[in-house]
Design a protein that fits this description.
Elements: H1 3-27, H2 34-50, E1 74-76, E2 86-87, H3 90-103, E3 111-117, E4 120-127, E5 130-136, E6 142-144, H4 147-150, E7 168-176, H5 179-191, H6 200-208, H7 213-218, E8 222-229, H8 237-246, E9 256-258, H9 261-274, E10 282-289, H10 292-298, E11 308-312, E12 317-329, E13 334-346, E14 349-355, H11 359-365, E15 372-376, E16 384-388, E17 422-423, H12 431-442, H13 454-462, H14 477-480, H15 488-500, H16 506-512, H17 520-530, H18 533-538, H19 541-545, H20 552-563, H21 565-577, E18 599-603, H22 611-620, E19 624-625, E20 635-638, H23 644-653, E21 656-658, H24 660-667
Parallel strand pairs: 2-11, 18-19, 18-20, 20-21
Antiparallel strand pairs: 1-6, 3-9, 3-10, 4-5, 4-7, 7-8, 10-11, 12-13, 12-15, 13-14, 13-17, 15-16
Helix pairs in contact: 1-2, 16-17
């Protein structure tokens, strides 16, 4: 293919893929299958690799990531990103309205109302219609340049093609993690034995600052835009919103122009319950004077604009009776307590069950069956018990004692030092653990056997046909026909799906076998570093710690897994079945060795980084992350609200305790 032919084909593919992206993300329509879309994208990637000089500025291949950002540059905002004043009451809102009226000296005015989304504020700069920069809010004056990560968000246009687009303009928006994506992300973390993320907002914030844009793309962030800035673009805020819609930006269709404060209050009341149906968390309403000229006339205080205010909804909490506590056993054996509640309507849904997290929370709340408990949804999406209405406690109620035996198989529970959860150690005899491992094995991110499902696995287990993943590969047609509702075609599809899974790459197979703490990303890193299952099985803890993304907790878990004879037997059976246990993928290059194999424990809350992000930075720069403080530890990286026990132990052992700023100095090659 000549360069001219390649240019024509690249342009055609770019336009076609962008068209289908816009159709899917802006208009909720599809004209081609996912497989057809992926084939177009792969064809474009191949051509761009062969002719890199012909890659378009709005190439959709940027959506899948691939770039590594070692440090995020600080960028000054052209227009400061000021915070808004908050109010929680109608009276304060009416007082603010009176100040607006006074400031406008009797001129007529109207308001524009938008829901206040609980995400990460972002500034997007476009030049000649091309997205050139995405910057976080930071301190309002300057933020971090996260452009590579922002390009992976499919609802953000890489190129605006309308004819009336100015040479330069800025768009403000809120980057968020959709509720369904957040729930799935937490399910995956639970599945590998990791703690759940606390809320969608903090998870989105950490994702935006990840160094590897490929990992960002996997998180499926989204963005609603709410502001357009530039020279002589519009006369009202409403007009600017209409332009953003016409230019292909993702504007939430929840806004409303209001003639007066009474209409504003009605909008607030209307959305108090409706907002629960939206794909992201909301915590209030933003009210703006619609006229941009009047906004300029009203001006700003030192911290916020006088022409806008945020009305914050109060956290929705309700009291209901605790009828009991049940216990669920997960794939890793973790036993999770669940509150069984008198049904109550909360935040748009009827709530019958709520999370109790672990034994520590039950003890801390001093819970008793029959108590009236407060239940919230908040930013965590899943209902949770937050407190006890002690005034309603009846005399004689007995404090709940956490169970000591597995609720399914009766095995005595164990609790590892430093962990909140209790575990059932009967990994090969506890039904939910066995079924859970098989369900994990066949899921899309693992072996991707879509002809199998939870109910089919349950039947196979109860018929004594499948007691481990390896049993799937010895199933026969007559076995499948024993399943309820299975005929010749469904049996054939089941066996065909299992056979097809034998070609699944080693990276996915390693994730599928279900080693505790080994998620999809860690499995990929281990597979690419060690190249084969045999080398991983033979590795010592010290060897495992040298692999990217692997800390003390993961290394110990992997090592122990391969010491278990039952696990060795299962791997041998899977090998015999013909699964892939060697990797052909290359491990991405490390960014630097500036941390010189130094070990870190991360504890507390940090100003500019999420803990997962700090772990990633350490590993990519040649360091190691471990889970506990010992005399061999090089640094305790201490944030705010760090538990006192780790600090005391570090001080006692003479371990160097460093701050966030100290850590940044280490990254630049300084010694401490």
């Amino acid at each position: 293919m000549t360069s001219a032919q390649a240019l024509t084909e690249i342009q055609h593919l770019t336009d076609t893929i962008n068209y289908h992206n816009d159709l899917y993300y802006q208009k909720n329509k599809t004209e081609i299958s996912d497989q057809e879309f992926d084939l177009l994208l792969k064809k474009l990637e191949h051509l761009e690799k062969e002719f890199p000089e012909l890659k378009q500025a709005d190439s959709p291949t940027q959506r899948v990531g691939g770039s590594i950002t070692k440090e995020f540059a600080n960028v000054y905002h052209k227009y400061p990103m000021l915070s808004l004043g908050n109010t929680y009451s109608q009276e304060e809102l009416e007082d603010w309205d009176a100040r607006v009226a006074k400031g406008l000296e009797g001129d007529a005015y109207e308001y524009f109302c938008e829901l206040k989304f609980d995400g990460v504020s972002m500034s997007l700069t476009y030049e000649n219609g091309i997205l050139v920069r995405g910057v976080t809010r930071g301190d309002g004056v300057r933020g971090d340049d996260v452009t590579n990560n922002i390009r992976t968000i499919r609802s953000i246009p890489l190129k605006v093609k309308s004819k009336d687009v100015p040479a330069s303009f800025e768009v403000r928006g809120e980057v968020f993690l959709p509720k369904d994506v957040f729930i799935q992300l937490n399910k995956e973390r639970e599945d590998i034995g990791e703690e759940r993320y606390a809320n969608a907002r903090n998870t989105a914030s950490g994702t935006v600052k990840m160094q590897d844009s490929t990992e960002v793309a996997k998180r499926k962030l989204d963005c609603f835009v709410y502001s357009l800035l530039g020279e002589d673009i519009a006369e009202t805020h409403e007009e600017s919103i209409k332009k953003l819609e016409a230019w292909g930006f993702n504007v939430s269709q929840t806004y409303k122009k209001c003639k007066n404060i009474q209409e504003v209050l009605k909008y607030i009341n209307d959305w108090d319950t409706q907002r629960q149906t939206l794909p992201l968390e909301t915590d209030g309403v933003v009210i703006k004077v619609n006229s941009l000229e009047q906004q300029q006339h009203l001006g700003f205080t030192a911290k916020s604009p006088r022409w806008a205010i945020a009305y914050k909804y109060k956290a929705q909490s309700i009291s209901t009776r605790l009828n009991g506590v049940t216990y669920q056993v997960g794939r890793t054996g973790a036993v999770t307590p669940v509150a069984e509640l008198e049904p109550v309507f909360l935040a748009g849904t009827t709530v019958k069950r709520a999370s109790l997290h672990n034994a520590n929370q039950i003890a801390q709340l001093d819970l008793r069956i029959g108590d009236y408990v407060f239940v919230e949804k908040g930013g965590e999406i899943i209902p949770k018990v937050t407190g006890v209405e002690l005034e309603k406690r009846e005399p004689g109620l007995i404090p709940i004692k956490y169970i000591t035996q597995c609720p399914v198989c009766g095995t005595a529970l164990i609790r590892t030092e430093g962990e909140a959860a209790f575990y059932c150690p009967n990994i090969n005899g506890c039904a939910p653990q066995i079924r859970g491992r098989i369900e994990h094995f066949i899921q899309r991110k693992a072996m991707d056997i879509d002809s199998l499902g939870e109910q089919t696995i349950k039947q196979l287990y109860e018929l004594d046909l499948v007691k481990s993943p390896a049993d799937l590969y010895i199933l026969k047609r007559e076995d499948a026909l024993r399943l309820e509702g299975f005929k010749d075609k469904s049996a054939k599809n089941l066996l065909s799906g299992i056979e097809k899974s034998k070609s699944t790459p080693f990276e996915s197979v390693l994730y599928a076998i279900g080693i505790r703490y080994v998620g999809k990303t860690v499995a990929e890193k281990l597979a690419r570093y060690f190249k084969s299952i045999d080398k991983i099985a033979q590795a010592s803890v010290e060897d495992l710690l040298k692999a990217p993304e692997v800390g003390e907790k993961i290394a110990q878990s992997v090592y122990q897994f391969f010491q278990n004879p039952e696990n060795k037997k299962e791997i041998a059976r899977l090998k015999e079945a013909g699964l892939q246990f060697e990797s052909t993928a290359k491990e991405p290059e490390k960014l630097s060795d500036v941390l010189d194999n130094k070990s870190f424990v991360i504890s507390g809350v940090f100003e500019h980084y999420e803990r997962d992000q700090l772990q990633e930075i350490i590993i990519q720069n040649g360091g190691r992350v471990v889970s506990s403080v010992s005399g061999k530890l090089d640094y305790l990286l201490a944030g705010d609200n760090m538990g006192p026990s780790k600090r005391e132990k570090a001080e006692k052992l003479g371990v160097k305790i460093i701050t966030e700023k100290d850590f940044e100095r280490l990254l630049t090659g300084h010694t401490l």
